[in-house]
Design brief:
The structure is a homodimer of 183-residue chains. By secondary structure, the first copy, chain A, is mainly alpha-helical. In chain A, 71% of the residues lie in helices and 0% in strands. In chain A, helix 5 runs antiparallel to helix 9. Chains A and B meet through helix 8 and helix 9 of A and helix 8 and helix 9 of B. The structure holds a DNA duplex (30 and 30 nucleotides).
Chain lengths: 183, 183
DNA sequence: CCCTTATGAGACATTTGCGTCTCAAAGAGC
DNA sequence: GCTCTTTGAGACGCAAATGTCTCATAAGGG
């Protein structure tokens, strides 16, 4: 009988990814519960979004862990990372655009941690000679988010095949970051 | 006395780029006019967004024209394009995310034209041997939009210097699209 | 089998933004 | 100076979404 909070969050994420302006009622319907029950579990829309942010953070952290960013070449680590991030791509795309609205407010410290880990990966690639120095880790991090979002949307609209998207993202990002041996 | 429609549109674009959920009242204030006057010029929020889309389209077309996509190498053409697109980056970022909400509705044919021109550029690069074939023109087009958006936001939040952003975008995209001569 | 608890349905007030309208004031053109 | 047009300020009703509440009911545990 008891509602599965995690399942609610996931269906909310799926819906909001497709339509970021969905109402609480739509979110409730999508989760197969009533609006009242949704409100009992998440005090309000803000709370829901914050819970989704928390979920996104967890999935990101988990993906970073699974990817083993410290092992092997930075390129391969990046490839593994994109692959691991793929299931959360829709949610990340939602959060990435949503976060643009919080301009003033301080950024959630969780994201800072993720950013730092990503930046560290890119810096490692630079120091190992794999990646070029003129594209800053901060930019590459930002670009990773953007490309994941673009990928998620492109798949949603059928412009890119779902099975290809992680390859397309990895290759573009790695190719762009890579030092060129010849001119 | 008469309101400058174009100036209103531009300040609206600037505001909505920063906060895509701004109200009509905020838009009016930002333009230095009253909400009533704003309503006299744009029947409603939808009309305003459509006008912004029109403006974005025009700026895009103009940038594509200025860039001379047919001349020289595809790489250089792409570099010129990104540079020309830069002033419209914020507006494009807004429209790009906004368009995600119109999932069902048919895409504005203007964007299809732009997409086609961009895809043609990438295809030209492939056929000239500059760009790799395994990244589809459709994906590269999508990635261009995504990176422009990411760039605009990164600049807004101070994560990337404004003077560098067009270089960062070009280099990442070109580097990623480029065929590698060696492994 | 009873009792506790969570749920669904719906009513309700509140908020918020939208769109329309009116009226007075300011400006532009003649 | 007069008139026509446009603007600003604000009031007003409307619609949508939110958040709260009640009540009946279904589920589950002891």
């Amino acid at each position: 009988m008891s509602v599965d909070r995690d399942q609610v969050l996931r269906s909310a994420a799926a819906l909001l990814t497709r339509k970021s302006t969905s109402t609480m009622d739509e979110v409730a319907r999508a989760a197969g519960i009533s609006r009242a029950t949704l409100h009992r579990h998440f005090a309000g829309r803000d709370a829901l979004v914050r819970a989704l942010e928390e979920l996104g953070l967890q999935e990101c952290e988990a993906a970073l862990d699974r990817a083993g960013l410290g092992e092997g070449s930075a390129q391969d680590a990046l490839r593994r990372l994109v692959k691991q991030l793929e299931p959360a791509a829709g949610l990340l795309a939602f959060l990435y655009t949503e976060n643009q609205l919080f301009e003033g407010e301080a950024q959630n410290e969780g994201w800072s941690r993720i950013d730092a880990r990503l930046a560290a990966l890119f810096r490692r690639g630079q120091e190992s000679g794999e990646f070029r120095f003129d594209l800053t880790p901060a930019w590459l991090t930002e670009a990773l988010y953007g490309l994941i979002g673009s990928g998620a949307w492109a798949v949603q609209d059928g412009r890119v095949a779902a099975k290809d998207v992680s390859y397309m993202i990895s290759e573009l990002l790695i190719g762009g970051a890579r030092r060129r041996v010849e001119s």
